[in-house]
Specification:
- It is built from four helices and no strands.
- The chain has about 110 residues and is mainly alpha-helical.
- It folds into two domains: about 1-30, no CATH class; about 30-109, no CATH class.
- Helices cover about 50% and strands about 0% of the residues.
- The longest helix has 22 residues, at about 70-90.
- It is globular, with a radius of gyration of 16 Å.
C-alpha cells in the first residue's frame, strides 16, 4: 500500500513508510517546542518553569503530570503522547509512585 496519500509532510512521504512510522514522526512534530500551559506551574514547584518544554524534558514532564496532575493535565499529555506513549512511560518509569503506577496500569489496560 502506498501511504504517500495520507502524509501531509514531504518527509513522511518516503516510499515504504508505514503508518506507525508516520504516527511516530507526527507525534514528534507535535512535541516540538511545546511549552507548558501556565496552569501547570504548581506541578513544577522545584524547577524553573519557564525553561521547561516538552521537547527537552518529555519524560520528566509526563511523570510529574501522571503523579500529580488533574484531569486537564492528563488530557493535555494524552494529546501529545497518545495512549500507547503513556503506557510505555508507566511501564518503564522509576519516578511514578506505586499507587500511581498501579492506577495507570489498570486504566490503560
Amino acid at each position: 500500500m502506498n501511504y504517500q496519500l495520507y502524509a501531509k509532510d514531504k518527509r513522511l512521504c518516503e516510499e515504504n513508510t508505514s503508518p506507525n512510522r508516520i504516527f511516530t514522526l507526527m507525534s514528534a512534530e507535535k512535541r516540538k517546542n511545546t511549552s507548558l500551559p501556565e496552569e501547570f506551574k504548581p506541578y513544577f514547584w522545584d524547577v524553573e518553569f519557564g525553561a521547561l518544554t516538552y521537547e527537552k524534558y518529555p519524560r520528566f514532564i509526563a511523570e510529574r503530570l501522571l503523579n500529580f496532575g488533574d484531569e486537564r493535565a492528563v488530557k493535555w499529555l494524552l494529546s501529545l503522547e497518545g495512549r500507547s506513549g503513556i503506557k510505555k512511560i508507566v511501564q518503564t518509569s522509576r519516578n511514578l509512585n506505586a499507587k500511581t503506577r498501579n492506577y495507570w496500569q489498570v486504566m490503560l489496560s
